[in-house]
Amino acid sequence: MKKEEALQHFRENHVHPTFHATIVALEQYAQTHRDELVQDFLPSFQQLCRTIKQKQAAGEKGEIGYITYSMLRTEILEGRHRYLVEATDNRWFLDDHVCKAEYDASWAFRFLDEFERSLEQARKVYMDVITPADLETIKLQEALNYHQYVIRFIRYAMLQAITLPEYIEIEKAEEIEIRVGEYFDRSEIVYKEDTREKEASEIAEWLEEKEPHVYSYEVFTQLDLSHGKYDGIDLRYANLMQSKLSHSALRTCILVGTNFESCQLEGVDMSYSVLYEASFRQSNLTGAILWDVQGAAGWLDDSIWTMPGFAGVTFAGANLTGTDFRGANLAGAIFTGAILSGTIFEGANLDQAVFSMKDREMIDLTNAQRELIIWES
């Protein structure tokens, strides 16, 4: 068997099925242990912030503009799973006085090691046509998929990390980004702060221009953006915490991971929008319309892996009086502590959605919906 034929056969018969098996196992682990992993993550973030504060107090470090978590390919090849963490000023990689730390992501990459071990056994059948070097190449290629789980997790962990006193006390630039990526390569924003003063009317006008690819990850907190015509815009991972969007039109929008916590959303129309991992915690959605929104937890397609599965949309503690969820796909969503007077769930997918037991009898649901819901005491 020629080299190219052997590699093709190896990929089809061993690489693909082994990857699927290990990534399914990682998906299940990440979904069920997310909060435990956060508790393991926070001490390392606290220590980084303490180091930053010490250097700032000694006049050795200025305001922080970036905190970057970087996957290191050399570490991956050596079977180590440490991310390099660097805190820098606004010059980012040009900063001469970097605060460095490490984060151990073994919880994710041990599944890559399992993938490699399985392929090492399968490789031997090919009588050295497929070499250890070929296996290293495959491992590095697939490592990026496991790395996606680290990105998704750190984005989730930041919701708690930014509330730590150690983080609050460090001196930060007006704009600060926390990013996860590869060393000196592409990275993604997992959290952003922007404390520059903004004029609500100017932001509303800008949003109504509906420019493509410019609003994602932006910070629009504590602004009155009510009565806006924002249909079709992309606000994925944007932060609108404590803003007012009452009676605004947000139909057919991309709202993946958007932070609507403690927002005024009375009468808002988000029909047909994509809400995966969005948070409406403690928000007021009285009379809001969310027909046919898509926000199910888990993979987009159970038959094939394309990206890590989403966490459920959260409406914990929200006022959902008269909110209309007709036809919504909210499998795995969190409704604990929400006000559910007159909430409409007609035709909604609530498979494994979490509700408070005290609300069980007062919510208008079909028997089929009730059987699929998780009722928490």
General description of the model:
The protein contains 8 helices and 7 strands; from the N terminus they run H-H-E-H-E-E-H-H-H-E-E-H-E-H-E. It is of the alpha/beta class. A 5-stranded mixed beta sheet has the order 3-2-1-4-5. A two-stranded parallel ribbon has the order 6-7. The radius of gyration is 23 Å and the shape is globular. The protein starts with a helix and ends with a strand.
Major β-sheet profile: 5 strands, mixed
| Structural Rg | 23 Å
Q: Report the oligomer.
A: single chain
Helix content: 25-40%
Poorly predicted runs: none
Structural class: alpha/beta
Shape: globular
The number of domains: 2
Strand element count:
7
Note the beta-strand portion.
5-15%
Q: Give the strand line-up of the largest sheet.
A: 3-2-1-4-5
Protein name: Pentapeptide repeats (8 copies)
InterPro entries: 5peptide_repeat
Keywords: Repeat
Layout of SSEs?
Elements: H1 3-32, H2 34-57, E1 64-71, H3 73-77, E2 82-88, E3 99-104, H4 106-123, H5 132-161, H6 165-168, E4 172-182, E5 187-194, H7 200-208, E6 354-356, H8 367-372, E7 374-376
Parallel strand pairs: 1-4, 6-7
Antiparallel strand pairs: 1-2, 2-3, 4-5
Helix pairs in contact: 1-4, 1-5, 2-5, 4-5
